[in-house]
């Protein structure tokens, strides 16, 4: 047969994958290196058991005729995992599976799963085969796309592949390749493979894949170098339409492979064959086949619709299989990708296990158990970890989108190939439509909603200028005008759209305060001066993790220390109260508060900018072989003219969990004198995907670790912040280290060399904001006594401290009288608001949750009302306000200091 490569069509191929090479006992190991719908639901239900195992189906949605998306919940040793499964009916003529490749259907290009799916017109797609990230970008396994053999299997033990024949029969097997190239004189030479990167074979005895070998490179290989890092200079032959048109002895042809031909790349004995038997103008033919390793059965690649390479077999005959090769480099609890088929050969399953804030991920053994529980008869492991990506097209939409967040959030890896699901149906008639738009609104927020049609094959249908009538089932919750809906008050309403006899509905929930976890207004700081205008766009984070923008003037605002107004997203100071050194703008959404603190210096709380650091900075590590440096130096780019702390690291010589530390002041650290509720800094990122942390040693000798970024997924300077209020830090504390971590799990997905830098470390600490007569000193109160001593002076109080369930409660008014600040009581809301320095706290009677500077927090105790007085938990409130509390058990005395 003559090698060919057809041009990509709308339903053609798309994209790719990567892999790591690790030496295990002298044997080359190929492992992963780097790597997510609403519609008229078929059934998005709440938890029917899928099998006798612990897989629980949460629901399913139609993607297109013959393909459905199912979501499962599965119990694992690490917690609850979510798995998304696309089931494709291989007997349905209107759907097919195919392999997507890079950009433009070519190797060495790499693209995200979503990019490949959109480029090729896929209904859905999942990441595919392993590949060597240090090479050009070609799959390790074999690949057939749209019936064309694009890459041959590598000589590696235990590597399985998934294939579907043109008559719809699925296979999971180990495949080998057998081919020859024949000259005009009848002489022939073994063909080693097609479109392969260089690697170390495992069974042939050769130390280098291309030694004394002949490989073919088609126009599916985009790069001009074929492959990189050859051990010897090749002889390359250009064959067009079966005829030799160029021969470059001891040289590579500096040309791209034409569509009507291929380049024969030869080394050693293969190059000698070219010299002796091939000549320009003579014909040359190729013959090749795939072999099933277990049976020796010959497979003509042209009989296959698709084939994707993978790794170990996971399931065989409906049971967990022993692994066909070492899985030490792909172990742990990770996001996972797998593929398999049902016992009756009818269904193919594309499986993506999530690991993110909602899902714990799975081990390979847990993945095996899950696959058997949903009906997989035979299946294999595809690339996983950070590469695991699923994209799906919601009913009525024209393109797929990320179905769930990857291990690195919304970031998708650029890979070499993936498996796409394609519709083969012609345009059908209108079957129905769906309502598209946000399922969640805030009070006062407006959302736009649209209708999207789908046909009899569940593919997009253009409804054009169809007249649509919109209505709300509960106008007290949302008001609807055309496709624009506004949240009115907390609750859930049904939004209905009608067009002729067709009706579609969707539930819209308007969130109240209980649905908010944080509320942030701009930077939270500003300058207290007449005429100042401050930008305060408000972002609400919901309890289910969504970030929702809302206009600042949709909140109810109150001002302390100044008079002002809020219009749109701007706060304007019209006048400053006499003697005020600080001001507060308190915005409330359904009672949930956020605060903007205004001071004469604009709210600055700079702790270290490295301009005049009077201490040394040094580099240390935990692992032998890790090197680097840490120093305060002149910044560059946007930091030109200022000093920064720069950390350079090289972990290529290390192993295990590796750290690169920038030590502040040797092992001593720099002191954080007063309690801080937050820390922020500018960080120069290297997009290494490593973990960025800070280490604090507190006054009790405890070590506190602060996550600055779970993955350094950006290049250049970026402002980061971290919440310190829930870390139980005893002050004074010391910031000892800023450092980069390369953990073992998924280590091959992250860079081992890089540079990060730090500047402008700021602390949000109670008492750093001047004004309101903040005072220092010592106060004492005794349980049951209506007197209080402040700096040696005794004063009468009208409510005595009490203890209840091991906690001390006090009337907060007297604490604030002694140390500065103020409290406000809202009787209707049963809420006390406490303000001191840079801190605003909202506490509700009998509720253990409280709001601290716009963030919902949990406490062990709640405020209470006793004899008409509101008493608050002393230690909780005092420590959040920058005060220290000591308890003397013998005298039942509380000592408070500032």
TrEMBL record:
All copies of domain BIG2, residue ranges: 429-509
PANTHER family named in the record: N-ACETYLGLUCOSAMINE-1-PHOSPHODIESTER ALPHA-N-ACETYLGLUCOSAMINIDASE (PTHR40446)
Entry-linked Gene3D superfamilies: 2.60.40.1080, Copper amine oxidase-like, N-terminal domain (3.30.457.10)
Pfam families for the chain: Cu_amine_oxidN1, NAGPA
Name assigned to this protein: Stalk domain-containing protein
Source organism superkingdom: Bacteria
Organism: Paenibacillus medicaginis
């Amino acid at each position: 047969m003559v090698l060919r490569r057809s041009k990509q069509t709308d339903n053609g191929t798309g994209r790719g994958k990567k892999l790591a090479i690790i030496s295990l006992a002298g044997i080359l190991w190929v492992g992963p290196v780097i790597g997510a719908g609403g519609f008229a639901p078929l059934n998005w239900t709440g938890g029917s058991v899928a099998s006798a195992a612990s897989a629980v189906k949460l629901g399913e949605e139609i993607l297109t005729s013959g393909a459905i998306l199912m979501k499962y919940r599965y119990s694992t040793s690490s917690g609850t995992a979510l798995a998304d499964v696309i089931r494709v009916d291989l007997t349905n003529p209107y759907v097919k599976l195919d392999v997507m490749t890079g950009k433009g259907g070519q190797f060495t290009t790499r693209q995200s799963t979503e990019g490949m799916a959109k480029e090729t017109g896929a209904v859905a797609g999942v990441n595919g085969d392993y590949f060597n990230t240090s090479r050009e970008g070609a799959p390790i396994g074999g690949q057939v796309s749209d019936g064309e053999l694009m890459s041959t299997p590598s000589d590696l033990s235990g590597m399985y592949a998934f294939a579907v024949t043109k008559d719809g029969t699925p296979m999971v097997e180990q495949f080998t390749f057998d081919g020859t190239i024949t000259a005009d004189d009848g002489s022939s030479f073994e063909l080693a493979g097609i479109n392969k990167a260089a690697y170390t074979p495992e069974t042939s005895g050769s130390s280098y894949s291309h030694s004394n070998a002949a490989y073919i490179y088609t126009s599916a290989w985009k790069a001009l170098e074929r492959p990189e890092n050859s051990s010897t200079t090749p002889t390359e032959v250009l064959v067009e339409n079966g005829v030799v048109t160029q021969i470059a002895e001891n040289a590579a042809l500096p040309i791209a492979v034409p569509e009507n031909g291929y380049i024969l790349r030869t080394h050693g004995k293969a190059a000698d064959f070219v010299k002796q038997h091939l000549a320009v103008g003579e014909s040359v033919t190729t013959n090749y086949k795939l072999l099933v390793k277990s049976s020796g059965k010959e497979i003509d690649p042209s009989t296959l619709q698709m084939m994707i390479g993978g790794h170990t077999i996971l399931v065989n005959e409906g049971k967990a299989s022993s692994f066909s090769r070492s899985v030490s480099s792909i172990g742990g609890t990770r996001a996972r990708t797998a593929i398999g088929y049902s016992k009756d050969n009818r269904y193919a399953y594309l499986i993506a296990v999530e690991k993110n804030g909602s899902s714990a991920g799975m081990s390979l053994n847990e993945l095996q158990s899950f696959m058997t529980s949903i009906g997989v008869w035979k299946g294999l492991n595809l690339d996983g970890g950070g590469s695991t990506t699923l994209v799906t097209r919601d009913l009525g939409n024209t393109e797929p989108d990320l179905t769930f967040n990857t291990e690195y959030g919304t970031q998708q890896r650029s890979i070499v190939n993936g498996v796409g699901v394609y519709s083969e149906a012609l345009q059908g008639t209108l079957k129905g439509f769906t309502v598209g738009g946000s399922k969640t609104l805030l009070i006062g927020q407006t959302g736009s909603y649209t209708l999207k049609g789908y046909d009899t094959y569940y593919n997009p249908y253009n409804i054009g200028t169809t007249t649509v009538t919109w209505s709300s089932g509960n106008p007290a919750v949302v008001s609807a005008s055309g496709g624009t809906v506004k949240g009115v008050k907390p609750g859930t309403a049904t939004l209905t759209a009608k067009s002729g006899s067709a009706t579609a509905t969707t539930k819209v929930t308007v969130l109240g305060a209980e649905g908010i976890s944080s509320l942030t207004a701009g930077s939270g700081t500003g300058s207290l001066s007449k005429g100042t205008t401050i930008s305060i766009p408000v972002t609400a984070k919901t309890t289910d993790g969504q970030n929702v923008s809302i206009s600042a003037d949709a909140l109810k605002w109150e001002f302390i220390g100044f008079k002002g107004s809020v219009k749109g997203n701007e706060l304007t100071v019209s006048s400053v109260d006499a003697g005020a050194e600080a001001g507060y703008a308190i915005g409330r959404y359904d009672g949930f508060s956020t605060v903007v603190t205004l001071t004469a210096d604009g709210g600055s709380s700079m702790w270290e900018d490295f301009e005049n650091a009077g201490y040394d900075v040094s580099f240390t590590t935990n692992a032998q072989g890790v090197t680097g440096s840490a120093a305060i130096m002149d910044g560059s780019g946007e930091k030109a003219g200022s000093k920064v702390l720069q950390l350079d690291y090289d972990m290529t010589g290390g192993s295990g969990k590796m750290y690169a530390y920038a030590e502040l002041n040797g092992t001593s650290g720099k002191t954080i004198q007063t309690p801080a509720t937050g820390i922020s800094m500018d960080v120069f990122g290297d997009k290494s995907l490593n973990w960025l942390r800070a280490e604090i040693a507190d006054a009790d000798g405890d070590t506190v670790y602060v996550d600055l970024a779970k993955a350094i997924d950006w290049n250049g300077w970026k402002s980061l912040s971290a919440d310190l209020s829930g870390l139980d830090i005893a002050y004074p504390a010391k910031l000892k280290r800023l450092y980069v971590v390369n953990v073992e799990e998924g280590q091959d997905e992250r860079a081992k060399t890089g540079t990060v830098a730090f500047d402008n470390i700021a602390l949000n600490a109670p008492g750093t904001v001047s004004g309101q007569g903040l005072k220092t000193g010592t106060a004492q109160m005794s349980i049951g006594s209506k007197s209080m001593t402040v700096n040696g002076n005794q004063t009468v109080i009208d409510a005595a401290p009490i203890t209840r369930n091991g906690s001390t409660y006090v009337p907060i008014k007297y604490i604030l009288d002694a140390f500065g600040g103020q409290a406000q009581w809202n009787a209707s809301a049963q809420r006390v608001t406490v303000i001191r320095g840079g801190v605003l706290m909202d506490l509700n009677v009998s509720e253990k949750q409280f709001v601290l500077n716009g963030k919902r927090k949990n406490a062990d105790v709640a405020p209470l009302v006793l004899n008409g007085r509101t008493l608050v938990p002393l230690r909780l409130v005092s420590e959040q306000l920058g005060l220290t509390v000591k308890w003397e058990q013998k005298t039942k005395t509380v000592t408070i200091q500032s």
